[in-house]
Amino acid sequence: MKTILVTGGAGFIGTNLIKRLLEDNNKVICIDNNYTGRFENIKQFLNNPNFKFIKHDITKPIKIEKEIDEIYNLACPASPPHYQKSPIFTLNTSIFGIINILELAKKHNAKVLHASTSEVYGNPLEHPQKESYWGNVNPIGPRACYDEGKRVAETYCYEYWKSFGLDIRIVRIFNTYGPYVDPNDGRVVSNFIIQALKNEPLTVYGDGKQTRSFQYIDDLVEGMLKYMEVDKNKLENKLKDKFNWDTVPVLNMGNPEEFTILELAYKVLELIPESESDIVFKPLPKDDPVRRRPDITMAKEVLGWEPKVKLEEGLKKTIEYFRELFIRKGV
Ligand code: NAD
Ligand code: UDP
């Protein structure tokens, strides 16, 4: 039985991950300051003796008395409206947060899986995006507090890996959706589903021709678990031998099927046939990336992982979740 620390555990990805870790019979310590996370999400775990919740802000040093085997560092507001609401807090979470996590990992000799993002590629000039692409990021725009914070966090991971031999794995997550997203999150999939269920117009920003590649949460959780499972030397040697990758491990995780935002809007409306919503066009936010699609060759080769859930199937499950939340619980 492993003891696993999950920061940001009350958030969307954290809740789904913790559910699976507890099902797999691990002990889980969840750290969250409830900035964007929902206490409602983790209520279901509170009676489980293998679950412990600590309310804490990871920008402050973290002390854990128990031995920790693994750390998943997920804490960070992730939706553009949330991360732009308190940009300095977002930057601090990425930067001071990762320093505190890496220091904790050093003390406990724990493995770390750090959640980075496709945003490190910015508005990409290479398509699809491989891990070796350095990105095209505006350091002084509204998205910079998130993108640049995540880039610095990757640099800290690299330096701790190099200087102290820490066992660190970075995952660059591409747009992921599914149950347990906060209804006020503001990201596109939950926005469209909630709008359609409430018969409100679907808000497409810009002309809707920008693209994203949408990954269902179960595929990501499966990928992260496989990534964490593999032995450090085996992982690093495989990356080196097959891809000439001789730095800290980094893997893209996302679904390579790419859709325009307008296609997504029509798909959601098709799957909620009773909806009376139409589509309205709103201004495109500044620095909104034009297109995004992961190259997942490295994860496929090294972990034998690739996403299985098609957009339609994942949307159906997410729609069911929000229907339940709205209709039965009246949220
Ligand atoms: P989320 O907003 O649902 O969850 C983030 C959680 O972190 C929340 O529970 C929040 O309260 C907590 N948190 C934020 N700052 C904190 C701090 N300083 N101390 C303690 N807790 C803090 O977001 P999510 O979608 O679950 O994303 C989780 C991680 O995955 C983030 O690091 C995000 O950058 C990364 N990521 C997510 C996606 C995606 O599509 N969902 C894509 C790329 C990267
Ligand atoms: N978007 C949209 N309507 C919304 C929310 C988002 O058209 O109600 C667009 C947004 O401008 C972007 C894409 O959908 O082009 C994905 O946005 P999201 O915030 O989900 O993720 P990110 O921009 O971080 O990829």
From TrEMBL:
Catalytic EC class: lyase
Pathway the protein takes part in: Nucleotide-sugar biosynthesis; UDP-alpha-D-xylose biosynthesis; UDP-alpha-D-xylose from UDP-alpha-D-glucuronate: step 1/1
Cofactors named for this entry: NAD(+)
Family of the protein in this entry: Belongs to the NAD(P)-dependent epimerase/dehydratase family. UDP-glucuronic acid decarboxylase subfamily.
Protein name from the UniProt record: UDP-glucuronate decarboxylase
Molecular-function annotations in GO: NAD+ binding; UDP-glucuronate decarboxylase activity
Upper lineage: Archaea, Methanobacteriati, Methanobacteriota, Methanomada group, Methanococci
Keywords attached to this entry: Decarboxylase, Glycoprotein, Golgi apparatus, Lyase, Membrane, NAD, Signal-anchor, Transmembrane, Transmembrane helix
Classification via InterPro entries: NAD(P)-bd_dom, NAD(P)-bd_dom_sf, UXS-like
Keyword hit for DNA damage: no
GO CC, alphabetical: cytoplasm
The EC number(s) this enzyme carries: 4.1.1.35
Domain NAD(P)-binding: 5-318
Protein's cellular compartments: Golgi apparatus, Golgi stack membrane
UniProt-listed GO biological process terms: D-xylose metabolic process; UDP-D-xylose biosynthetic process
Topological category with respect to the lipid bilayer: Single-pass type II membrane protein
Organism: Methanocaldococcus fervens (strain DSM 4213 / JCM 15782 / AG86)
Primary localization: Golgi
